[in-house]
Design a protein that fits this description.
Bound molecules: coenzyme A
Helix content: 10-25%
Number of domains: 1
Radius of gyration: 18 Å
Oligomer: single chain
CATH architecture: 3-Layer(aba) Sandwich
Strand content: 25-35%
CATH superfamily: Gcn5-related N-acetyltransferase (GNAT)
């Protein structure tokens, strides 16, 4: 389903079409768009780990400039899952957001259950190209791709881009904040709403990253010398630090949105 975007000269392809680019989108040029500690959520392994990602090639997208087709500039991943199909526990989107929908997708795949919806997992743009409108192209491509695969509903546990600038604000309050024109205040939530999404609800425990104090120091290059809620750059809420127990835990809140896809 290669698709050319004239405005940006970019082509978006699935990893089924460009399997050669799959490893490359995990190189630092794109991967550095998120802080290091975000790569230590063990829940990710059931989607991104060896032996799993290859099952999702139709659900992953890569953008590149046709003049340099070997160099990926942005990536997007999504996961199919069974929702509101009678499967027990699947009537509502999970509070456990990103981690939980990855588990659902994995359980469905291993049980041979037919997926009925898709969840976005991420859109990531190479930092040097951010602000150029590529995220909108990727989101539209993800919507088109889910539709092409026969789905009518695309959900997503969003990571609001600017929440890390005010980690102490309660997430539910931040998520519904609007600008004077009525659009969402957060730019990434706004992009989704402008593309046609409805805000559903927060996912308060969407990603859980736990580690020892030494691991957290290595991931963040910070010294943790006090127990209690701790502000870490890039985190959307405070990290819970316990020097006494030698651990720190970050629980990332995300925001569930729903794109109803017209046929
Ligand atoms: C979120 C992300 C995908 C946006 O991609 P992008 O290509 O830079 O975004 P766009 O250029 O399409 O801009 C989209 C909107 O975000 C705004 N924006 C982009 N970068 C911004 C920044 N650093 N600060 C404030 N606003 C920003 C743009 O102004 C635009 O808002 P508008 O409605 O006012 O026009 C990108 O920043 C990224 O890869 N971040 C790291 C990964 C991540 O958090 N992904 C989202 C969760 S999965």
């Amino acid at each position: 389903m290669s698709k050319r975007f004239d405005a940006e000269r970019l082509v978006v392809a699935t990893f089924a079409e460009r399997p050669d680019l799959l490893a490359r989108v995990f190189e630092p040029e794109i991967q550095s768009a998120l802080p290091e500690f975000m790569r230590h959520d063990p829940g990710a392994a059931l989607y991104y780990g060896d032996g799993h990602l290859e099952h999702y090639r139709e659900f992953g997208l890569v953008a590149f400039d046709p003049a340099a087709p070997e160099r990926p500039l942005a990536r997007a991943f999504s996961v199919p899952f069974a929702f509101r199909d009678g499967t027990p526990g699947r009537d509502e989107l999970p509070e456990g957001g990103w981690d939980e929908v990855i588990r659902w997708g994995y359980l469905d795949r291993t049980a041979g259950r037919r997926p009925t919806a898709v969840s976005a997992l991420e859109i990531m743009v190479a930092p040097h190209l951010q602000g150029g409108g590529i995220s909108r192209l990727m989101l539209n491509a993800m919507r088109d791709n889910a539709r092409r695969l026969g789905f009518a509903d695309l959900y997503g546990p969003l990571r609001p881009t600017l929440k890390d600038k005010e980690p102490l604000t309660p997430f539910a309050e931040y998520a519904v904040r609007r600008r004077a024109d009525g659009l969402p205040w957060d730019p990434w939530v706004r992009v989704h709403v402008q593309a046609g999404a409805q805000i559903v609800k927060p996912a308060p425990t969407s990603m859980v990253v736990a580690g020892t104090i030494a691991e957290w120091s290595a991931w963040t290059r910070l010294r943790f010398d006090k127990s209690g809620p701790t502000i870490v750059p890039g985190a959307l809420s405070p990290v819970h630090v316990s020097l006494e127990q030698n651990h720190a835990v970050y629980i990332e809140p995300n925001l569930w949105v729903h794109h109803r896809l017209s046929p």
